[in-house]
From TrEMBL:
EC number(s) given by UniProt: 2.7.13.3
GO molecular function, one term: phosphorelay sensor kinase activity
UniProt protein name: histidine kinase
Segments passing through the bilayer: 6-28, 35-53, 65-86, 98-123, 143-165, 181-200, 212-230
Top EC class for this record: transferase
PANTHER family from the UniProt entry: HYBRID SIGNAL TRANSDUCTION HISTIDINE KINASE C, TWO-COMPONENT HISTIDINE KINASE
Native source species: Algoriphagus formosus
Keyword tags: Kinase, Membrane, Phosphoprotein, Transferase, Transmembrane, Transmembrane helix
CDD domains, sorted: HisKA
Reaction equations catalysed: ATP + protein L-histidine = ADP + protein N-phospho-L-histidine
Residue stretches making up the Histidine kinase domain: 368-583
Pfam families, sorted: HATPase_c, HisKA_7TM
Length: 583
């Protein structure tokens, strides 16, 4: 076996060995997807290496021997390229038997046809030695199966290229450049082969430059894979991540045009179809000036924004994209629906405020128990002790009794309010809805509180001409009326009058307690409406706890009613309670 090495054969053998080493390194070091391109490269090197030996051979017999080895690479490289593109682009069924069998059947037949060509001549009708050039080459006439192999090879490379382009034509620049390099790796050598098949470029009549083109392209591709980790992040994985994100993601280039986005982003646009590759920022968010203003400047920032459509609230964040030289390449826009988050935060804040208010109320009531309740009771205790020991006479004791009685009435009201509040806060107040006439309840409260009114020379009048039946908890409303009337007495002057009235208004009963006393400031009216506890001394220096009006508001609310307050400082107050009418 004689060899006559020349520039063509030497360059093919050396470049084949180089690409073979690179492809082996890729196959062992990188993931399974990249191994398929490495296998394609390896089979091309088989073609190139043995084609180099063919070009260095001097006899037709030796050339035909090397051709059998060449076709191991020539036959299977197109199928391996097709399988690589299917797996790389995420085609789920690439490993199914029909796909694999369909891809490798013709290459297997091709290899058998070449090896057995001497028996049938279907691949090469005729082979001969050409000695016209600087070195011997093999000439041949194509058989019918040769045409089938060429059509299959072109179809496999073309289909793989189309799959790559269709999958990544709308990808961001990083993956688009990856795809372009892959397409070049598949298309550039095929162009050379097309020139060879048509006779446009065919040195010395029969030399095929296709393996040279393949080896050069794959040498560049292999170095890029190893040196720059070209396929370390697969585009299909990036696509899956983008699709899985619950935030809307829009990637803009330096001209504020969309280069990538995920499906969620369309939910945050009034015209979702406008979000597409190449769309401008202004065409997408022309209604949202706050979002457009985020692109003024080059720093990372975010805003909370209510879009011009829908009832949602969104958080919009812009993240600049810069290269190693800190040049601005574009921006990433992140959009997140925070409607539920805001509602939750508001509820938590409301609960925090309510708990704080209850805690403050609790502390205050413990202070009431230790001071306002303890003081009068201990005073009575001392008075009884002093009477028993003779420090004061019986006549002096009887003189003090009216004042003691008045204090005890205040203590009784305080105890009743404390017990009601404790029942409401500790075990939860159960509302016992009944239907009853409001007039007997008002009369009863007037009778119970008449002595307090008489002591201050305040007159209580009732203006209820007919029976008005309400649907509510009788005990709760009883306590509401007692607290409101007591409050009216406390802030009335001698000679003032308190008017208790009731009327029907649509489906509600309106019960009003009107006095001509000193009135209430706007600040205190607001505190009552918000359920805040506060105390104010009466005109006769009567003490208060602030608990009564808190219970009034709470009990009215629990009975599906409402409380209205009208007051002018110096001109009295009107408290109106609205309750559902009985059926």
């Amino acid at each position: 076996m004689d060899f006559s090495f020349n520039a063509f054969s030497v360059s093919l053998i050396i470049s084949s060995l180089a690409v073979m080493g690179i492809s082996a390194s890729i196959a062992f070091r990188l993931d399974t997807t990249t191994r398929w391109i490495a296998m394609t490269m390896f089979f091309i090197t088989v073609w190139g290496f043995f084609y180099g030996l063919e070009l260095a051979s001097t006899t037709l017999k030796d050339m035909l021997l090397w051709i059998n080895f060449e076709y191991i690479g020539i036959s299977f490289a197109p199928a391996l390229w097709l399988i690589f593109t299917l797996k790389y682009t995420g085609y789920r069924n690439w490993a199914k038997p029909p796909v694999l069998i369909g891809s490798f059947t013709i290459p297997a037949i091709t290899l058998l046809m070449v090896i057995s060509n001497g028996l049938h001549g279907l691949y090469y009708e005729k082979t001969f030695l050409v000695l016209d050039g600087p070195f011997p080459v093999m000439g041949m006439e194509k058989g019918p199966y040769y045409i089938i192999h060429v059509i299959y090879s072109y179809a496999a490379f073309l289909l793989g290229t189309i799959i790559l382009w269709r999958r990544f034509e709308k990808a961001d620049p990083l993956f688009k450049n990856q795809t372009k390099l892959l397409i070049a790796a598949g298309a550039f050598p095929i162009v050379f082969n097309l020139f060879y098949q048509t006779g446009v470029i065919k040195p010395f009549g029969y030399v095929d430059l296709t393996p040279f083109a393949f080896l050069f392209t794959y040498l560049v591709l292999g170095i890029a894979i190893l040196r720059y980790g070209l396929f370390s992040i697969k585009p299909i994985a990036q696509g899956k991540i983008m699709e899985a994100l619950t935030k809307g993601v829009l990637v803009f280039n330096s001209s504020n045009k969309v280069v990538d986005f995920n499906p969620t982003a369309r939910a945050f646009c009034s015209e979702p179809k406008k979000i597409r590759i190449g769309a401008t920022l202004e065409s997408i968010f022309w209604k949202e000036k706050a979002i457009l203003e985020l692109f003024n400047g080059f720093e990372q920032k975010s805003i909370v924004h209510k879009p011009s459509f829908g009832d949602t609230t969104i958080r919009v964040e812009i993240i600049p994209i810069r290269d190693k030289e800190m040049d601005d390449l574009g921006n990433i826009l992140l959009i997140d629906d925070i409607t539920e988050e805001i509602k939750t935060n508001q509820q938590l804040q409301k609960q925090k405020e309510d708990l704080q208010q209850l805690n403050d109320l609790k502390d205050k009531f413990f202070s009431i128990i230790s001071h306002d309740l303890k003081g009068p009771i201990f005073g009575v205790k001392e008075l009884v002790h002093m009477t028993q020991t003779g420090l004061i006479s019986q006549e002096e004791f009887l003189e003090m009794m009216p004042e003691v009685s008045k204090n005890m009435e205040q203590v009784a009201i305080l105890l009743e309010n404390l017990l009601a509040w404790a029942s409401s806060q500790i075990r939860g107040e159960q509302v016992d809805i009944q239907q009853f006439d409001i007039l007997p309840l008002v009369n009863q409260q007037k009778k119970l509180l008449s002595r307090l009114a008489e002591d201050k020379k305040v007159k209580i009048e009732i203006d209820i001409e007919e029976s008005i039946r309400v649907s509510a908890d009788r005990n709760m409303i009883d306590l509401v009326l007692r607290n409101l009337i007591t409050n009216a007495i406390k802030f009335s002057r001698a000679g003032d009058r308190i008017l208790l009235s009731a009327s029907r208004e649509k489906y509600q009963a309106k019960i009003c307690i009107k006095d001509s006393g000193v009135g209430i400031s706007r600040e205190n009216i607001q505190k009552i409406q918000q359920g805040e506890s506060f105390t104010t001394r009466g005109l006769n220096n009567e003490t208060g706890t602030g608990l009564g009006l808190v219970l009034v508001r709470e009990y009215i609310f629990k009975n599906k009613g409402k409380l209205e307050i009208e007051s002018e400082e110096g001109n009295g107050s009107t408290f109106c309670v609205y309750l559902p009418l009985a059926d």
